[in-house]
Amino acid sequence: SSDYMIGLVNSLIEFYLLDAGKGKMNVTVFRPLSLFDEIVKLHTPSVRKEGLTLCTDFEGLDTVVEGDRPRIMQIANNLLSNAIKYTNEGGQIEVSFKRGTMKDIVPRYETVHTEGSIPAEQPVCILTVKDTGVGISTESIRLIYERFFQTKGTSQSHLGSGIGLAIVKSIVLQHKGVIVVSSERMTGTEFIVALP
Questions:
Q1: Do the Cβ atoms of 26 and 33 come closer than 8 Å?
Q2: CA 196 – CA 175 distance, rounded (Å)
Q3: Which pLDDT value is given to residue 155?
């Protein structure tokens, strides 16, 4: 319908600007506490409607971080929306945030793909979104950031535009961060975003 088309056009414009390096970052200092409060409140109705469980583990939210808050929120929203979309009723989604280094990042599954690079000792903020959803195949995992690529689920009713993860990758790289995805088909997927 028209709302979907407007959203798709807006996403395409945003992706174009990010991809062309014309999307400007608005870096501010903020506390992650308010950001994650908003994210959980925004997605709780969808989680309940789909019959899922949402678990959170937030550490260090009272600290101050520097970044483009709306863009960081967009990363979390896109990852959480995908987790909800690709997890069947009765499944579980976990969202966590902590401070650490790249050494603290240990992917859950064997099939792993990483975009970006940060020195192992550099302090980072680590956002993790895990689900017990349909997972991503070994063949597909390197393609998920391509425009319009979609992982096939158990039904076609939940497919989106296929540009959300491309936008997430662009925002992460614009922040000079790293995004790690690990997955096992029909078991689950884990996205880890590390931002300096």
A1: no
A2: 8
A3: 46
111 phi/psi in degrees, rounded to 5: -80, 115
Q: How far is CA 120 from CA 102, 105, 114, 123, 156, in A?
A: 5, 10, 14, 9, 40
CA distances from 39 to 31, 45, 114, 137, 152 (A): 14, 11, 24, 28, 26
Residue indicated by tokens 């483009």: 68
Query: Are 83 and 133 spatial neighbours (Cβ–Cβ below 8 Å)?
Result: yes
C-alpha span between 156 and 178 (Å, rounded): 30
Q: Note whether 130 and 107 are within 8 A (CB).
A: no
Q: Model confidence over 54-69: pLDDT tens digits?
A: 999 999 888 889 999 9
Q: Residue type at 75? A: I
Cα separations in angstroms, 9 against 2, 3, 4: 10, 10, 9
3-state helix, strand, coil in the chain (%, to 5): 35, 25, 40
How is residue 66 written in tokens? 């520097």
Rounded CA separation 8/2 (Å) = 10
Selection from 47, 46, 14 nearest residue 174 by Cα: 14
Alpha-carbon span 128 to 79, nearest angstrom: 9
- pLDDT of 95 > 50? The answer is yes
Length of the chain: 196
